[in-house]
């Protein structure tokens, strides 16, 4: 039992570290923050399909990324919660072909516009920000996440 807990903790830490690295890469490309954001790291929100250890890993990774890239306090808190909610929803809907990609897109499309308005003072209409954030998240989760899931299943012969 102890070995399993250690493995899960290590896996969560590795996912968190990978999330931070991919967010930095997105940030260098100018895609990590703002009204239009395509965080490469959000493709990792598909990982709860394979392991529940991904949920805390993604939350901590997002929290650290937001801290290290200079985000405002509301973004650090609510942005991380949006990622955690999306990861948790992905775990719940893991059996479907399309459904695992929906929770991260929806949670970020709903929460992040409030962060942009009240944390950064963007005065764009909420529906527009929900659309742009949702589209960016759909690219990260839907396109890149789909590729990641397919690659993991093929490489490690996982068919769950």
Descriptive keywords:
single chain; 160 residues; mainly alpha; Arp2/3 complex 21 kDa subunit ARPC3; 0% strand; globular
Structure commentary:
The protein is mainly α. It has one domain (2-156): Arp2/3 complex 21 kDa subunit ARPC3 (Orthogonal Bundle), CATH 1.10.1760. Helices cover 70% and strands 0% of the residues. The chain has helices at residues 2-28, 54-68, 73-92, 102-120, 126-156. Helix 2 (54-68) packs antiparallel against helix 3 (73-92) and helix 3 packs antiparallel against helix 4 (102-120). It is globular and about 50 Å long. The model has no long low-confidence stretch (mean pLDDT 92).
Span from first to last CA? 23 Å
| Residues in helices, as a percent range | over 70%
SS summary, helix count: 5
CA radius of gyration is 15 Å
Strand content: under 5%
Average pLDDT over all residues:
92
What's the CATH architecture? Orthogonal Bundle
Which regions contain 5 or more consecutive residues with pLDDT less than 50? none
Q: What order do the SSEs take from the amino end to the carboxyl end, as H and E?
A: HHHHH
Total strands: the figure is 0
CATH-derived topology: Arp2/3 complex 21 kDa subunit ARPC3
Shape: globular
* Structural class by secondary-structure content: mainly alpha
CATH class: Mainly Alpha
- Tally of domains: 1
Largest sheet, in brief, is: none
């Amino acid at each position: 039992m102890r070995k399993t807990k250690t493995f899960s903790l290590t896996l969560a830490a590795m996912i968190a570290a990978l999330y931070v690295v991919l967010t930095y890469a997105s940030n260098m490309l100018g895609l990590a923050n703002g009204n239009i954001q395509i965080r490469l790291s959000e493709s990792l929100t598909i990982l709860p399909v394979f392991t529940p250890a991904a949920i805390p890993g993604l939350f901590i990774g997002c929290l650290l990324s937001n801290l290290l890239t200079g985000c405002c306090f509301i973004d650090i808190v609510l942005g991380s919660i949006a990622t955690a909610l999306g990861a948790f929803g992905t775990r719940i809907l893991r059996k479907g072909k399309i459904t695992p990609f929906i929770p991260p897109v929806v949670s970020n499309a709903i929460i992040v516009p409030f962060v942009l308005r009240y944390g950064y003072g963007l005065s764009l209409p909420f529906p527009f920000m929900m659309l742009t954030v949702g589209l960016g998240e759909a690219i990260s989760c839907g396109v890149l996440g789909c590729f990641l899931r397919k690659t993991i299943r093929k490489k490690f012969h996982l068919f769950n």
